[in-house]
glutathione-specific gamma-glutamylcyclotransferase
Amino acid sequence: MEARNNENFLWVFGYGSLCWHPGFKYKRSAVGHIKGFNRRFWQGNTTHRGTIEKPGRVATLVEEKEGVVYGRAFQVQDTAAFPYLENRECTLGGYMTTIATFYSREGNRSFPVIIYIATNKNKHWLGEAPLQNIAKQISECSGPNGHNVEYLLRLAEFMHRYLPEAQDEHLFTLELLVRSRIKETNMCLDTLMGKRDFNIDLEDVEIDAKDEDSDLVTNNATNNLRKNSFQFSLKVPDKTLRCLKM
């Protein structure tokens, strides 16, 4: 089964930072969920949200028959985005790829999507740990792309704002634990979040790649976000899928 449902388009499912910072050009996106997995912060990261000395923790998927993971699917024309994703997810992140079925939030569409998954067979794997320990590690780690706290809180905020029906005890418990730790240790939330804005356009309409160059540096803020929420912005640098394992 291929993750394409018309013409030469492939769909990629994001359940971590891809939800709010895809980093590649795409035709359209949709929010929804996949089945058969749970999201877990069991994958280590030394290139984006941590260092070799202090690896951060980022999301991966673990198989669970009754599991449901909410996120965002992106329709990518041909394979233009895959060299970028291969480097970001596979080469640097230690992820492999497989296929799942995506179900749109409206319930009127389902189609195959490519998903990136890290397993205990890669060198960055950290595995299961008490949530208090994971929260402590996240609050203490940062890397070239920013603090590990930003990764966690932006993902949780995306779910709260765009998929309020999402049930994810692991993610939301970590969010509460990290926020509590930030308060207890008097850490500056603005600094942890990188003092930057990201705007997300979730309209299910085709995005003209010719008009996207200006989006690479877009950081427009609005004033209607609720307290402690964060703004998201579409950033899409240009970039076949050699790490695909089905």
About this structure: The CA atoms of residues 94 and 121 lie 9 Å apart. Residues 205-246 have pLDDT under 50 and may be disordered. The radius of gyration is 17 Å.
